[in-house]
Design a protein that fits this description.
2 domains; MetI-like fold; flat
Length: 297
């Protein structure tokens, strides 16, 4: 092995310092938001955002968890829909993308164009609502948060392009041994597709975790609210209360400010935690999957 020269070590050290500084720059806004969520509203208004907590205050988190049953229930609904949604997305996407990657499949170009067409045009809100409510009867059903987003054309093409990068000799050898297409898919393609599965799984997890729009349209029962929708309603209520209070009402409360800024930041901290913790475990697959799946095709 060639011994590293002084210039090589200096280059590696320089890149390490630059990456560390860039990572610190990316983490700084998150740290400032975390500090502000534990700060007193008066201190935020008076001094602005700080690196350290000037006056510790848990009022924002008390307001969020004052209806702790609702928050915990919403967490459970979000975790359930995210887990089922990611599993359904990976299953349907892989099962659809693999046949489209085979040259022997007839009409694969027409089917791919049909999938691509959905990226350009859609039926609009009213037809989707009528289809979901009147024909599929998914009103106040958790499946309405899972099924519509389960098969995405962009994810489909990412996975199809990844399957096309796999050596054809693997499938040919398996066919010589008597394996069919489904056996090749299950035993060869899927084990080699961990990077793209992790990439699409992360995309799907972020989408399901942040879901609130479909809850607004199709869910009326409070017990089925997702975390993001519950947080949005809480923020709206706090903003309305803060803007509508007259001076007499504020004086009756001892002129204590309603922590509108703190609640926004506290809800952000509460909601992004699981996704932030999930990403480091998938990072090594994520970069390879997104690059390989987007180059060919």
């Amino acid at each position: 092995m060639r011994k590293e020269s002084l210039a090589d070590r200096a280059t590696v050290a320089g890149f390490t310092i630059v990456c560390a500084l860039f990572g610190l720059m990316c983490l700084t806004p998150l740290w400032v938001a975390l500090v502000a969520s534990f700060s007193n509203e008066y201190a935020l208004i008076r001094s602005g955002y700080q690196i350290w907590i000037n006056q510790l205050d848990f009022t924002s988190y008390r307001l969020i968890f004052s209806g702790s049953d609702d928050v915990l229930r919403a967490y459970g609904v979000t975790i359930l829909t995210t887990a089922l949604g990611v599993g359904t997305t990976l299953f349907l996407t892989a099962l659809t993308a693999f046949p489209l990657s085979l040259r022997s499949m007839r009409y694969r170009g027409a089917i791919s164009f049909f999938a691509y067409f959905t990226m350009l045009f859609n039926g609009g809100l009213v037809p989707n609502y009528i289809l979901t409510v009147r024909f599929l009867h998914l009103k106040n059903n958790l499946l309405v948060l899972i099924i519509p987003a389960a098969l995405n054309a962009y994810n489909l093409f990412l996975m199809r392009n990844y399957f096309q990068t796999l050596p054809e000799s693997l499938a040919e050898s398996a066919k010589i041994d008597g394996a069919g297409d489904f056996r090749i898919f299950r035993s060869i393609a899927l084990p080699l597709a961990k990077p793209i599965l992790a990439t699409i799984g992360l995309f799907a997890a972020m989408g399901y975790w942040n879901e609130w729009y479909r809850v607004l349209l199709y869910i009326d029962r409070r017990s089925m609210f997702t975390l993001q929708f519950l947080i949005m309603k809480l923020q709206q209520q706090v903003d309305f209360l803060s803007s509508s209070m007259n001076p007499q009402a504020r004086q009756s409360l001892g002129n204590i400010p309603i922590p509108t800024i703190g609640i926004r930041l506290a809800t952000a901290m509460v909601s992004i935690g699981p996704i932030v913790l999930l990403y480091p475990f998938l990072q090594r697959y994520f970069i390879g999957g997104i690059l390989i799946g987007s180059v060919k095709g």
